[in-house]
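chain below, 304 aa
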Amino acid sequence: MQYAVGAPLPPPRGPLHTQGAGMSMNWTPHPGQPHPPGAPHAPAVPPPPPAPPVPAAPGQGGWPAPAPHQAPPAAPHPNQPAAPHPSSPTPHSGDITGHIQLPPGALVPVPSNATPDAAHAAVAVLLIGPAGAGKTSVARHWADTRRVPTAHISLDDVREWVRAGFADPQSGWNDNSEAQYRLARRTCGFAARNFLANGISCILDDAVFPDRPVVGLGGWKRHVGPGLLPIVLLPGLEVVLERNARRTGNRRLSDEEVARIHGRMAGWYGSGLPIIDNSQHDVATTVRALDEVVARGLASPPSW
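prediction:
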């Protein structure tokens, strides 16, 4: 392709503007996109919006400083404790979990001689009884209706966290079921201490036998502490059988097994532990009786 001398060169097709020392080159739009005479040259495609200005670093002659490697932390929520500064020492992993302070190694102490308010005190209660006594229903209702934060910890629920290989109580007591029971009891005791260390009461329920030290109160005392208040819920055999018949799944036992467990629970009579016979009580009435027993236990802790 040839051009006559003195003829204007064809305009370039890309919008470009470069500027150097002593020279300037302006690229005009494509001939099909003319602009009015005298108007400043504009690119054919609108330029992208400029990036936000970055403040210049001192001593750099006005050149923008590179973007910081880490954005400043966002302001914490008003109800959320502020995170520690990166330069502050990192707490030991055994001291905190999130923002919840974990307890020291000490167990739950025995209440002092000063009589606390049973309706507001942070207490740990162990509700004992045979299958079908209504332990879980009473414990859950007691935790729901207190005027202070209260947690319900059911040993049966914790045992059923094991899915494959679960030691079904319907299969009887053996080494596997005893091992899983011990593990569940330790887990419940650890959870109870953590709740109490943060001012949250708890009630645990378990079918503790008075004639079997391995599954007796000794284990609960080791894992929770001497401040635990054990209370026995022991209705009549007919009531227990009727309630057990309404159960489903592995919570339901045979009538023979229920009768055997109920007979062993009779050993709690004469033990010195408080016993509530809820044969004629509904759940709400039993909870009121439980409140009275807890108040007496806080005023005069049982010896066990």
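The longest strand covers residues 201-206. The radius of gyration is 38 Å.
thats it, cya
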